[in-house]
Structure formats: C-alpha cells, structure tokens
Amino acid sequence: MDMQRIERALEKLKRAVGIGMKRVTMPHGIPGHNLTQIEREVPQEEPPAWPTNDKLSVVGKNVKRIDAHAKVTGSAKYTADIRLPGMLFGKMLCSHHPHVRIRSVDTTAAERLPGVAAVHLFGMTDSKDDGGQGEYPEITFAGQPIAGVAAQSLQIAEEAVKLIRVEYKKLPFVVDLEEAQKPGAPAVIAIEAKEGNNLLGPWYSKPRGNIKTGFSEADLIIERTYKTQVQHHCCLETHGVVVDYRNDGVTIYASTQSTKNVRDEFAKAFGLPANRVRVICEFMGGGFGSKIKPGPSAVMAGFLSRKTGRPVSLMLDRREEFLSAGNRPNSLQHLKIGARKDGTLTAVELHSRGTAGVASDSGVGHVARSLYRCPNFYSEHYTVLTNAGPSTPFRAPGNVQGCFAVEQLMDELAEKLELDPLELRDRCDKSETRRLERLRGAEMFGWSRRRAAGSDTVIVKKGLGMAQALWPKFLDLDSSAEVLLLKDGGIEVRSGVQDIGTGTKTVLAQVVAEELGLQPEAITVRIGDTLFPDGPTSEGSKVTGSITPAARNAAYKAKRQLFEQVAETLGAEASELVAAEGRIFSKNEPSKKIAFQEALKMMKRARISATATRSENYEGKPVSEDLGAVQFAEVSVDTETGIVNVERIVTVNSCGRPINIAQIESQIEGAVIQGVSYALYENRVMDAATGHQMNANLQQYQLPFSMEIPEIEIVLIESYDAATSTDAVGIGEPPIIATAPAIANAVYNAIGVRIYELPITPDKVLKALNKI
Asked: At what angle do helices 661-680 and 739-751 cross, to 10 degrees?
C-alpha cells in the first residue's frame, strides 16, 4: 500500500509539471444534444481517445455474455458447488434469543457424535493460539452465531449443532425503532449504550447557508414525516465459503463482491500475510451490497479448517441469511422545505433516524442535500440500536430511503404552487442531463395524459407519477488488469475483479477486443482470483468505470510491444501500425499487413505481458456531474381492495459510454424490479415479545411474482466526460433510487390521498381512503 501511495504521488507530480503527458482530443457531452470535442492532458503511456460508440466496432454493441453458456447449462460452479478432496461441511449454532450473556458452552456431546471433526466457538481462538481461551461474546440479536461444527456431512453437522448445550442469562431486549428510543428502554449493546440510550450520533451532512434565514424568506413551507421499512437483499445464492487452510497458505472459494476484501480481512483475522491467502470467486449469485466483506461464516470456516487440516464448506441456509447476512435499514424522516412562489427553494431541513440493528450505519444518503439547488441546508441523523441483525450496504444505500421523502415532498410542493411536477424540477434542478432525461422520458411515457389527483370516478383508478435521483460516480484507484499475448495465439485479460452477475467478464472482453481490433470471443477472461492483479470491489456502481480503463490501457501497452516486434517484418515503423478487423497494418501503406494471429506467432518470446492500474481522472478533474435517473410510473389502485398494481415504468438513465447495451438494460430492469418490490411488498416483521423475525423465509417475506412485474421501458442517455480512456461508468444504483417515490406519487395521483409509509400495502391504502 505504501508503494501504491508513492506511485500515485509521483503520478500527481508528473501531471502537475507536465512530465510524460500528451494532449489528446476527446468527445465530451451527449450525442445529439451538446456533443463537442475537447482537449485533455493524459499520461503518455495511455492510448488515444476512442470516438463515440457509433464509430466503434465492438464497444457499445449487444455482445452475447461470454459466460451465458456456462450459466444456462448449469456447468457454472458457484461456491456451494465446490467439492474438494476430504472436504467437511460446516454448520453454525445461532442464538434463538435476541439478547443474552453466555455463561457456559458444553460441546462434549457434539464432539463425540460420529462423523464430527471439529467444534469451534465464536470469540475463541483455537488451540494453535492459546488453548482455546477467550471470553464468550455478548449475544445481541436472534440469529447471531455462537459456535460452529465441521462434520463428514451437512446432516451430521446439523445434528451435532443440536447437541451443543449453552447456559446463558437472558437480558432485556428491544426490536422496534420507536420503542428503543424511549426512556427506560433496554440497552441493546451493554458495552456501548446505557439503559434508555440506544442512540448513536448525531451525524451531520455539511450544512449550507443559514436555515433560519432560508425559511424566513419562503412564501410556502411544507413539512412531513416519512417512514421506510427494513428490506432484505434476498440473494438467490446465500452467503458462504469453502476454506482450505494449509500450512503453506489458505485458499478460499467465496461468494463475494470483493476478492481482495476477503483476502485482506481473513489475513488480518488469522495473522497471516495477505500473499498467503488466495480468494477465488468465479461465479456468484447476487450480493447487492451484502457480500462486500467476508462475514462471520468465512472466519468460522477458517478456524474449523485450521483445526482439522481439511477443507470446510460453510453455506448459510435461507433463515440464517435473513437473520444475520444484512439488510437495508429503515428510516423515520422529518423533512421540511421552504420555497418562493416561483418554485425557487429557500431552505431544506432534514431530521432522520433509522435502525441498522446492532450496526451503526443507517443514514438516508445525500439526496436532500444534493438533488436540488438550495442555498440553505441542514440535516442531522441518529442511528437507533435495536436487538436485530446488522445492516449491510444495499444497492444505493441511504439514497433509496432519502429519495422516497424528498421526491414526494417536491411533488406536494409542485401541487401547492400550481406547477406541473416536471416544471418545478426544471426550475430547481441543477443538472442539465436530468433535464434532458425528464424531457425524453415524459415524451415516451405520455406525461401529458396526467390528470388532476383523484379525479377518476371509477373503482379502479389510474395514476401517473414521476421522481428522479442522483448517485455519485465513484471509482476505485486500486483497480488493475493484466493483458497477455501468447505466442500460441492465446489472448488473455486477468484481474482479481469479480463478476457478481452483472457481466464484467463480457465488458472486459469487449474493451480488450476493441483495442486489439478483434472480436470478444478471441479474448479469454480470467477474473475473480487474487492471484491476479487486484480489481475493484463490486459496490457503488464503480466496477465498470474503474476496471475498463485499466484493461484498455494494459491492452494498449501489450499491443505497442507487439507492434515493435513485427514492425521490421512489415517494413514499417511501429508508430504507424494499426490493429483492426483482425489484422495489423500500416496506416500509411495498408498493403503492409498481417493477420493478428500470425503476428503472435512471430513474437520473440512465449508471451507479452502488460499491466495497468486505474489512473486519476484526466487532469485531476472531477466528472461533470453525478449519475442521474428519472422514473415515470403508471399505476392502478383498486379503491375497494386497496391493491396497487404497477402497470408501467419508463426509466431514463445516463450511463456514460455504454459498453454493452443489453447488459445495461438488464441491470436497469433488475433495479426497477427491486424498487417495485420495496415500494409495495417487502417488509421485515419483528415480534416484540420474542425478538424474532416472523417472516425469515421466502414464503412469508413478500416479493413480487412474475405477473406483478410491470412493463419496463428503458431510455439510455449516452454521455462522455472525457475523464478516462473508456469514459465508462456503472449503472447498478441509479435506477432503483427513484422507483418507490415515483410509484408513491402515482398512487397519490390516482386516489388523491398521500401515503407516507412504505411498503404501500392494501391496508394503508384503505386507511388513507377512510375505508378501515
């Protein structure tokens, strides 16, 4: 890490004084809208700028996923499919109680069960360290792991877990957000909170201006309270690992969003150098933020494998996944907005609280602060501890909750000012890209059909609504790729980056193929292995924007080395050679050419290897603006049953330079479906008397089925920041953020009554209509 810091500091110094830099002309803006050509100063070793996608042969096209055959035929191996010689199966004993202090644990009967190889207690080191000494951890939620067993089969491990005897002292608990804040409420975590004080914080967003002055200048002030629920990730593949702990090193097969995080945190937990831990993730079945870190199952499997000297597979079952693997925190938000008669915002004030269970991060994002122009802003947030499983990041963490409040209140403000919701946003929004998104989306959606709220006189009423969102363009500079050109004709791109189902393998193949003038099927992609250069963590929609410049730059370096080796044969200078359409030729004399595969055979050595790491954005400038998304929703509401049906979503998204259109659309569709599910169905139900989650399974935890998925129409805004050699960005987060508020605004338009709490269930609709 110190060497990386030194290299980055040197790179910044070179940029500052212009050493090793060159000027290139790059596209900047939106095709068909404001596209221009601008100059950027870029590192000498990076390739010239690509033109817009319409002039490229592979990038920006619908290329078939290179892992499609493996997935549809079932030959793709996920973590649960890994079978190693001598492998044991692990199972954890998890607490049935929400808050206890463990007095003793007796594992004798479990250890004597035939087929059991090892038992390990959480919070204890194993015999290789200090003889198993340690303190029993305080148990703070039902589902928290206590012990683990490794056995010859999963069935034996499950039986052994039942034989472990735990003596404990029950402690008071609380699982409700509002109850946990009351005077005299039980302390959730005894070591962190005194009785009656389960609040952590406050945390403040950067204030702006003077909030009192802002509200004094307002012609209209509206304030409302909004509630959102706890949402589970519901990954099709549960959390799990296979750990093979050997004296000469550890190999971990993990369902993870970050091979390097698992490597580094596992190494830290076991006191190992990181280069003795190898992490492999070839395929994984969904994470949405919950699999960024290794989690307790990985550590437990590590201890069990170290004790037995054999590989251990430990996969969570569905109930364990619900109870302990993470969730999106709930929120209670009090939002206040002041505005002048012309729609100009004068002040925004937000006070919010949420529970992340026994974790500390339950914020509601930066939507209120950043989405609209407003000179005066203030917010504060408290996390409320409860005896429930900890939250983990979940697709656009915080912004999904925050947007539900902001975009409903903006709609209400528009109505009171007698403005169309689009017109109000045109006056307040600082983003020209979102203005274009609103324009194109409204046209496709048919926004002009929208009528006054509640004006339908039929039982099943129709409604139209919209909302918009923003998400930062994050990047991970610790993102590297290696490109290999092999004398036998093979071409490989390698990186530790993992493909979590979003198509990273295909994107890398396209980028390298475009640079080398080949087709994607000519490229072998090897990723998801920490033996390769570190790739970015799959979070925050940053993978594509972080790894594709590294991959292209590495391919460019390798190509230049190849040009040097074949230039003499072609009777040309290496600087005049070009790779395109499967050939290498002179741009000055096109008749001087050779097939790319033939050129590889002429290499002087067995391979050419080139590695590149993501550099800072060109000229050190931040990108022009955040990622934007605008959603339009059409709903029907049955006023006799309260059932809401989302019939149609039009979603407009800016996506930088699109690499693979089909994969982008798939990402957007998935995000919209999760947003619909959040708006209407999902909700963790906790029992205050027992502290248990009552719907910790996929039968009772409500998710939409196929007939409840709306028609989804997608509009992409291709845009260029002239910031990197690919100008690609991610698209995972933005489409989910605005979905719930767009639906809520459409429900209001249908029935003329606002619903301030998610999910929008039939009972809430009927209550709003005074029918129950």
From this structure: 50
β partners of residue 90? 150
Token duo for residue 726: 């690919």
Which residue in 282, 294, 289 sits closest to 326, CA to CA? Answer: 289
**Cα 769 from chain centre:** 37
* Encoded tokens for 264: 């580094």
Indicate the residue type of 193. Answer: A
Spell out the alpha helix ranges (H) of 362-430. Answer: 367-370, 399-416, 421-428
Contact 44, 615 (CB under 8 A): no
Q: For residue 433, which of 185, 56, 729, 763 has the smallest C-alpha distance? A: 729
SS3 call for 740: helix
d(CA 214, CA 205): 17
Tell me: pLDDT of 244 over 50: yes
In angstroms, what CA-CA distances link 712 with 242, 659, 703?
38, 21, 18
**Cβ-contact 26, 49 below 8 angstroms:** yes
CA distances to 431, 467, 588, 745 from 417, rounded to whole Å, are 22, 17, 65, 16
Q: Which long-range contacts (CB under 8 A, 24 or more apart) does 5-12 make?
A: 8/477, 8/616, 11/43, 11/615, 11/616, 12/616, 12/620
DSSP state of 186: P
CB burial of 87-125 (b: ≥16 within 10 Å; e: otherwise) equals: bbbbbbbbbebbbbebeebebeebeebeebbbbbbbebb
Q: Where are the alpha helices (DSSP H) in 541-644?
A: 543-570, 596-601
The pLDDT mean for the chain works out to: 94
Amino acid at 244: D
pLDDT digits (tens, 9 = 90+) for 712-752: 999 999 999 999 999 999 999 999 999 999 999 999 999 99
Q: Could you tell me if 301 and 242 are in contact, meaning their C-beta atoms sit under 8 angstroms apart?
A: yes
**pTM of the entire predicted model:** 0.95
Interatomic CA distance for residues 117 and 700, integer angstroms: 36
Residue 175: which of 160, 188, 184 has the closest Cα?
A: 188
Give Cα 139 distance to the centre of its chain. 29
pLDDT(4) > 60 = no
Residue type, position 213, single letter: T
What are the tokens at 278?
């190898």
What is the set of domains in the chain, with CATH numbers?
Answer: 2-76+474-620 (3.30.365.10), 418-473+623-768 (3.30.365.10)
Is residue 300 within 8 A of residue 120, CB to CB? The reply is: yes
In degrees rounded to 5, what are phi and psi of residue 675? -70, -40
pLDDT in tens, 256-297: 999 999 999 999 999 999 999 999 999 999 999 999 999 999
- How many separate helices (H) and strands (E) can be counted in the chain? 21, 28
Cβ-based neighbours of 70, under 8 Å, separated by 6 or more: 76, 283
